[in-house]
Amino acid sequence: MKIYLPFLGKTREKYLAAGIDDFANRLKHFVQFDCPVLKDKKKSAKDSPERLKDEEARLLLQNISSAATIVALDPSGSQLSSDGFAELISKWENQGVKEVAFLIGGPLGLADEIIRKADLVLSLSQMTFTHEMARMLVFEQLYRAYTIKAGTGYHK
Amino acid sequence: MKIYLPFLGKTREKYLAAGIDDFANRLKHFVQFDCPVLKDKKKSAKDSPERLKDEEARLLLQNISSAATIVALDPSGSQLSSDGFAELISKWENQGVKEVAFLIGGPLGLADEIIRKADLVLSLSQMTFTHEMARMLVFEQLYRAYTIKAGTGYHK
Prior knowledge:
Two copies of one chain form a homodimer. Chain A is an alpha/beta fold.
């Protein structure tokens, strides 16, 4: 199973970029993943939030195969425990899922189209975090899930 | 109102320490806070987890005035939205609360004594994060709460 985790624009906050790198380096021992930085087009003052989100949705969806399982990260979603998330990944593997795409919006959040298309809408917390922080948290939870599945410790 | 946010040992993960510093620098424009690093005593193999947690509880509680409102960060707690957290801070201010202590455990979590003593047990997420990551998230949510209260934007 491959994980696709595209970023809308690069991570500007340096300490979050460092955290993401750290978890990406650890995660690659467990699973194949592709984490491309999709180029945001230059925003213009004319663009409405809805139009920007639609453009972002187009970018996020462009490289996803029709067979992929789509997880949308959105505050409207349901929460899972870390153990529950690890179980879900095992279930996907057992079902022969080839690709899981984790989609994180920009500062405006995800377009409705992605929420509708998603197989799972997942919320990290009732609290609001920046989308860059959500990137690091998703990486951390993926890494944690694979260590839970592997039965290795992760105490940091 | 003063915020007391003691850390059990320094933050070892450099990118998290950088994130905490960043939010601490921004938060100090809004509220007075004290964030001491409490020295963990050297752990010995003889110490049971319960004994270590009790020792940590003693450290965490030693400088808290009896009048302080205590918030324990623990997965067993209830969640708040960021708006709800901002409203709670406003409520404490209106009630004349002098000090709010936010207590985060070490890798083993908080001692039962602290959960019992707490006025509020707050959970950040159903997912498990490291205690060092929880530090950064609490700082981020405090900063977010004060920007919500101030009506200033925070889009990062």
